[in-house]
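User: I'm putting together a teaching handout on how sequence relates to shape, and I'd like one worked example. Could you take Htaa domain-containing protein from Microbacterium allomyrinae, show the sequence you're using, and then write out its predicted structure as tokens right after it?

Assistant: Happy to. First the sequence, then the structure tokens directly below it.
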Amino acid sequence: MRRAPGRLLAAALLAGTLALAPAVASVAAGTTDSEDGASGGEIHVTVPERGPQDGDAIADAQFRWGLNTESGAGAFAGGCNFLSAGRAGDVGGGGIVWGAGATDTAGAALYRATDGDVRIEKPARSGEYDLATWAGRCLDANGTAVTASSLTSQTGNQVVIDGGTGVRAADGSLEIRWSGSFTVVFYGGMTYWSASDPVLSIDASGDGRVTATASGYAASMENLAEWREIEKQQIVLAELRGADTSGDGFMTDPLYAGVSVSGVGQVARTADNAAYWGAFPASFVQFQKLTGQAGYWLTTGGVRDRAKVASTLYISYDARAPITVVPPETDAGAAAAPQNTIRQRPASAAPALAAPAVPASVPVYALADASTVLPQSEGLVPGSLSGTANPLVIPLLGTALALSAAIVAVLNIMQLLPWQRRAP
């Protein structure tokens, strides 16, 4: 049977369009010809690689922090304060010292030097940091037991968490997340709490914070019978300002000096205590009201106030090549204990004192409740063709559409469209 000329024309136009389709798909997908000029027969989809404008992926960051000197100092009861890896279980009641009156094995049941990617390290006499132990938890770098009667006596223990993942954007903003927990033990275990899965968020100006999920047990110095599990809650561990996120990592002193919180017994700022007057973030201190430790994270007028200042936080983008950590200084002499270094913001950033008896404050409470906004990185495939697509895609797509329109027009003239067919 002979085909009508109109049908042949329509078939030819349709065949031309179908022949053009692979070329359009090939160009759109980024397919290139081989070196000998032959075109590849497969259609390849190329996912654009992450470039500097999208940020640098971070796969194994390290978090290192001692919180403050008090977290590794001698205690007025229970021996000392110390850090432990992991989230400690329920000791069963307030006023109980871990391992008191029993063997070291009993205390070690709660204490851990390592837990997953989390470990506790202490400086040795050589200045190197070694893995902490249950037996040495209350000893300084020289092997001397720490004592609450000296502000220069400390173990220098630090929590170290590897395996952090995140991204550093081109503008310097940063977000890194770690998985794991650590426990802060005071008075030998009479009161303790844990922080889990810390998150570091910093904006382009270097300002940000470290948050974590806090948990623990409610305790009271006045009532040792008080003991109950605290509901988990998000708190700010550290407020950061002006951190330099370039390079392989950074060290920064979290805000403490000049920070004001209310309702937790912070004394007035005076000329005498201005050098170390301050507090940890408000949500942190409010949580410590439940644990019974609030007084050890802000200036209360006590003899240990100098030891409460926040310690330096160290962030390394590659745990295999961490930045240099500065161990605590030591006095001259073989039996000397590490010095407590008072860290504070530069004088230019510190609030001025109107009068010695009038406290000046920084409204960090509101900042702790604010969110740090980070620019969202692009997805793996850009959302638009502008500036990213092959310049031949648009013309080829236009040609394909024109041919399709021509086919419809011819079929319409020949009255061959489905709705134009006449009944026999």
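A couple of points you could highlight for students: The helical segments are 5-29, 104-108, 282-291, 364-369, 393-413. The first strand starts at residue 56 and ends at 65.
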